[in-house]
Amino acid sequence: MKNVSLKIKGSKKNIFGEMLFTHFGLSGPIVLNISNEIVKLLSKGSVTVCLDLKPALNLKELDLRLQKDFEKYSNYDFKNSLNELLPQSLIETIIRLARIDFHKKVHQVTKEERVRLVKILKNLEIEITGHLGFETAIVTSGGVDTKEVDQKTMKSKIIDNLYFAGEVLNIDGKTGGYNLQMC
Q: Which contacts of 138-146 are long-range, i.e. CB under 8 A and separated by 24 or more positions?
């Protein structure tokens, strides 16, 4: 999904960009960018993240957008009215979460149901219970402290004739090749 925002529940920090729903959970650039914080919090138990599927619209604007779509598709089954708003693969799940009958005609959707749908689209809570571990990690954290390395030669300040390069250094940055570029 493009142009979504993600935050850890209770945090004010939003990360905006692309993400994926996979067979094992969440992935993609914004998930990778927040994963370090999530993994640390997982040591205390599950973590809830909040996904805003339409961050460019506030609640009122999204409700108005839905109303326009509902007018356009008023005689359709509800399950066929969200194709312009959501990826096809996500529609069924969102409808189930909103507790709206799939086969209900769009013009029969109540205001309460529409408001519930808007709230889900703006604040979809997902419980994170674990991660796939180091073996499948795309991004890792930690490494040799850069204070222990001569920045000009990359030589260890502690052990003679030992040099470091790449992601063995303790440099964390956003995904997208920035770690490699810095290293």
A: 138/32, 138/175, 139/32, 139/35, 139/36, 139/175, 139/179, 140/167, 141/36, 141/170, 141/172, 142/170, 143/167, 143/168, 143/169, 143/170, 143/171, 144/168, 144/169, 144/170, 145/170, 146/170, 146/171
